[in-house]
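Ticket #4471: structure export looks truncated?
Reporter: QA, pipeline team
Priority: medium

Steps to reproduce: submit the single chain below to the structure queue and open the exported record.
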Amino acid sequence: MELTLLGTGAPDGLPRPSCPCAACATARGPWARAATALLIDDALLLDLTPGAVFAAARAGHSLGAVRQVLLTHPHDGPAVELPPALPPAGRVPDGQVLTLISGHRVRAVPMDAPGTGYEVSSPDGERLLYLPPGAAPAGLDGRAERPYDLVVGDVVGRPDAVARLRAVGAVGPATEVIAVHLDHDAPPGAALDRRLAAAGARAVPDGTTLVVGEYPVVPDVPRRVLVTGGARSGKSVEAERRLETFPEVVYVATGGRREGDPEWAARVGLHRERRPGAWRTEETCEVAELLGAEGPPLLVDCLSLWLTDAMDRVDAWEDVRWREGGEKALRARVAELVAAVRGTRRQVVLVTNEVGSGVVPATVAGRRFRDELGRLNAAVAAECEEVLLVVAGQAVVLRG
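Actual output as written to the record:
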């Protein structure tokens, strides 16, 4: 089964007409995207968009052989003129199956937002799933019979859609996931590629033709990632985005609770509200133990609070205790954590702080913490496939 993406953008396209934002200003050349439409084996057109005939011609195809046009979502704005010789556009009721004269079977998949998803099976058995913008499959009960060969959907806007499909086995390790309906909220260029790769997905230019069922080039998801940055840099958001397409995640909160500190409670509450509801939270500093166990991906936030607890345990803040065994005890605990990062079989994203680029702390204890955190960050970074530095909400790749 051959799939040609006539467009990969949001319904308004990218750049949006008359929009002055930075994302639209840079959406030129290969980053410009028409509204998403899919042409399958030159016989089935999913979503009729302005300029579809010309988009097909640029991709080396014709719409002359199209036998069915299906719409996935309500189209705002003026009606799209139906090109000559194309059959009328329609929608299949949820749950019903349409068999085309070409041998393709199309099943309408219910969504949790206005619109219809379509599962398309070729005469040879390849299967793809196409999801409308801003929507995820609804009512997924039980395990899927087998994974789809290809899933095309709104990965940036609805990452939980991929998580739901992964949870029931509809997206497997060999499933190719293509992000479409890309709007100006998506980061441009390499930043988009990096975010999608963390989800095991990718974006392609308009006009790209894919062979469904062919051995896909599925992006490698790094097992260990370290995200560092200053206060309020956006490092926690960046870390959370890297796991938002996974159905189960254990969020390891190393800060714990602080009785009588409403400001800290408010911070914790904001983090909790931002995380998907399916994530489980563990308030612990026994990170090495979790890394050594089997289980779903871990998000550890953060190493600086872990280090504070480790220094508290060995009373490393006091000079005398530091010289009389505190330093040695701290080194042993750090080595245990680093070894656990090196040997873990779980996917893990670790968050830490950069504290060595500002004012030198005024106290001996403050300088000791700064130095030890720098050493810890360097040791953990050496064991990670990918290391990111987040500055003003922008992630800079240091490794990977």
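Status: closed, not a bug. The export was complete when the record was re-opened. Leaving a note from the reviewer for reference: The chain has a mean pLDDT of 90.
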